[in-house]
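Known limitations

Files may contain more than one protein. Parsers should not assume a single record per file. Below, a two-record file is shown to illustrate correct handling: read the sequence, read the token line, then continue until end of file.
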Amino acid sequence: MDTSKDKKHHYNLTVAWTGNKGEGTQNYRTYERSHTVFIDNKADILCSSDPSFRGDKTKHNPEELFLASLSGCHMLWFLHLCSVAGITVVEYTDKATGTMIENSNGSGYFEEVTLKPQVVITDISMIEKANELHHEANKYCFIANSCNFPVKHESVCTVKND
């Protein structure tokens, strides 16, 4: 593989634990799982662990953000490919789902993610091509290409009613 034309992109952020209630991690129950993601010039993201792991259900958790990253990356590639192919997308909604396995030792992993894009386009003759572009988008998605499990797609494409 010729890497002379490959580009490296670097990302920086800060994750700060905000859950010290005064005693630190002296006991599994004495601290909150709250943390904040800081990225320069962007809104802070208030996070916690999943409520199953003593987290705050009102805050985003890493597993949800991971699923959102997969869904968002796929969407952005799909919209790009549609634009290049002359397909006008006017609505895009994805109700993505993911399944994580928690092992008996407390470790875990995602075994599967299913993206369920609901896409609305303007030209009925482009429905088949739009559906094909989901497969192409999956080939390009940076996040999906970094996963060691299948990212499935159950897409539905319809035409805008005037």
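...continuing to the second record:
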Amino acid sequence: MVKVQGVIALTRKAEDYLEAILNVSLEKGYARTKDIAGELDVSPSSVVEMFQKLDRMGMVEYRKYEGVTLKPEGEKVAWVIKFRHDTLKSFLMLIEVPEDIADKDACFMEHELHPETIEQIGALVEYFKNGSRSSDMLGRFSAFCKKFHYEKGCR
């Protein structure tokens, strides 16, 4: 559960909805019930229920039959969750976790890790992406992983 401005506590589920609304809106320019239901693999009635709850909390503006838009506070939270997710997914892919697994694991981790931990992971990812000798280390790590998994018979 995350506190927003020290007042409203959001559940993991509410955070997932805000992130999904942001992602769909960035892609399509808007978010409708069926879009979010597909994104989160839930029923449309569950989506409507959460839209109404988030609307009462002041996170979104929900209009029946039109969909939902993020209000400033909801957008702020959604961007924080998206940053966490993207950072953790990048890290997991950096250490050669397959993308589909990295995406699922990032969904879990984004709610559980301390923000400072995520910041440091982000710094590490940037270091390896932009460091002059980092591609060397990543190449050696990749070779090590292949050998490790081959010896273990895992992959």
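Parsers that stop after the first record will miss the second one. For reference, the second record is described as follows. The beta strands are 2-4, 8-10, 60-63, 67-70.
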